[in-house]
Amino acid sequence: MTIDKGENELKVFWTLEPPQRRNLLILFGSGLLFWMSLASLLPTLPLYIQHIGGNASQIGIVMGSFAIGLLLFRPWLGRLADRRSRKLVLIVGTAVAAIAPFGYLFVQSIPMLIGIRAFHGISIAAFTTAYSALVVDLSPISKRGELIGYMSLVAPIGMALGPAIGGLLQAGAGYDRLFLFAAALGIISLVGVTQIREARKQVIGLEDNPDLSVQVAVKPLWKILTDRSLLIPSLVLLLIGFAFGALTTFVPLYITETKIDLNPGWFYTAAALASFTSRIFIGRASDVYGRGLFITASIFSYCLAMLMLSQAKSAIAFLLGGILEGAGSGTLLPMMVALLSDRSSPLERGRIFAICISGFDLGVAIAGPVFGFTIESIGYRGIFVLSTGLSILGMIVFITQCSKDLHHSLKFALGRERDLYAFGELKSEK
């Protein structure tokens, strides 16, 4: 099987019905503004906490508390997306993104910042769960990876523009205007998602198979948590989330400590550009060659990124580390969404996204406080040495456990076998 190189990269969108294309266009625009709002605070919020008197430990706690909102609300929001409406959950996410920056604007105490940061975390819990589920609902199965790849470009584009603009705005106009800028982007994103026209069939994903509700029993929570096909992706996301938490919390401070002449925003911009590039091509290729090969490659890229950052002593080294991290995350997260989509029914997709991706959220939540408390003994370089080890462990877990036994896991991880856990296919083999 090969990919037709001459085919228009965006041709897949013209195979969709006009209402589907309209929804995807609105989703893309709102998603771009949403990610710009969040990303504008990545290189600046740790410096703001330091500016108002926070130490390294407190910075870690505040930044890590973002994941508290993620962890507490993702399961509930996933159920809401399945039972009620993807659009409703999108509205919740963008509304929180619009409100939270006003909290940073008026609060200068560490305990209050922890609360606001946790509240802000609800925005990603809601938006990413509903966004991914709705994109999958609108995607033909044979083109699922390709459409997920294209639609996930909102994150790297937003992450490229947001930190650069946020860093420049903070340096030139101060924190107040930075927070107002982030709030304004959230408000416009909220207005956008209210324009989505969501049909009931799109909500539950049964437009192509109206008998599916009879064939599929929705898994209870305990079964999702113990299902090997879902547990292994969740565990891998937990380990990589730990490394990502180190990046989002400590890279700006690490660069400042090394006294390198580099605006921390450019690190995130370099990562976002690499993420953008990888997403253009990987989603489409995964529809042909499977998800496993690209997940393996993405984790390996993460390992190299953490290793390079642990040894970084120049602006070029930091930027190269950002590029490797961006290539890794730009491949890993869309491919994990595609993998989880392949392994779940439309009736429970929102819940499964919410629960499994919470593994990533938990890693981010743990990273800030744990590394913050150990910073004095191991330093910033030590943080990224540990992150390298956790990334390597994630790669070992995936390669050896991603299918029903070691033999099939190795073959799937190297792109030599289809996914035996894919929804509907495993049953047919038994």
Provide structural commentary.
This protein has 430 residues and is an all-alpha fold. It is built from 19 helices and no strands. It has one domain: MFS general substrate transporter like domains (Growth Hormone, Chain: A, Up-down Bundle). It has helices at residues 18-39, 45-51, 56-64, 66-83, 86-106, 110-137, 144-151, 154-173, 175-193, 200-204, 212-215, 221-226, 228-258, 264-289, 292-310, 315-342, 349-401, 406-413, 425-429.
SSE arrangement:
Blueprint (H helix, E strand, L loop, with lengths): L17 H22 L5 H7 L4 H9 L1 H18 L2 H21 L3 H28 L6 H8 L2 H20 L1 H19 L6 H5 L7 H4 L5 H6 L1 H31 L5 H26 L2 H19 L4 H28 L6 H53 L4 H8 L11 H5 L1
Helix pairs in contact: 1-8, 1-9, 2-3, 3-6, 3-13, 3-17, 4-5, 4-6, 4-17, 5-6, 5-9, 6-17, 7-14, 7-16, 8-9, 8-14, 13-17, 14-16, 15-16, 15-17, 17-18
Summary of the model, kept short:
It contains 19 helices and no strands.
Instruction: Output the CATH homologous superfamily.
Output: MFS general substrate transporter like domains
Fraction of helical residues: over 70%
End-to-end gap: 26 Å
CATH architecture: Up-down Bundle
Which fold name fills CATH's third level, the topology? Growth Hormone, Chain: A
Shape: globular
Order of helices and strands: HHHHHHHHHHHHHHHHHHH
Biggest β-sheet strands, sense, barrel:
none
- Quote the average pLDDT: 81
Radius of gyration: 20 Å
- Would you identify the regions where 5 or more consecutive residues have pLDDT less than 50? 1-7, 201-216, 425-430
CATH class: Mainly Alpha
Structural class, judged by helices and strands?
Answer: mainly alpha
Strand content: under 5%
* Discrete helix count: 19
Question: What oligomerization state is this entry in?
Answer: single chain
How many separate structural domains?
A: 1
